[in-house]
Amino acid sequence: MVKSIFSINIAVADLDAAVKRYEAFFGVKAELRGSAGFAFPGLRGARITIGTVRLNLITSDAPDTSVARFLEKKGEGVFLVSAEVDDMQEQLSKLNDMGIKPILKESAEGSWGIVNFVHPKEMHGVQFEILQPAEQQ
Is the pLDDT of residue 96 over 80? Predict the structure, then answer.
């Protein structure tokens, strides 16, 4: 079962410029995140937390990432919404019952937790990340 919206992830072409703009707009300091904070290599970003909402600004250092393809095709904007779950297998089973297939055959695991994704075509144009944070494993 989806517990909460974990974060809203925004693809940006120039991370430094985006961080400056968002820090000024919200009056909050961003936390820079290197590639270790992402399920796939070639990405880096910054997290801005406003209350309980996390905004992740994400850019790509490699031309073959989904973020790079998104930026090339659609430009900057909301890339995906991350939904937090308590039990990844239970959520994947629920999605399967709904006729929704996750993008990854095997969920990705790392120090941040377990993730899988739902294609935007399945969710009316919005890509969703299903995340079971590490502290819940």
Answer: yes
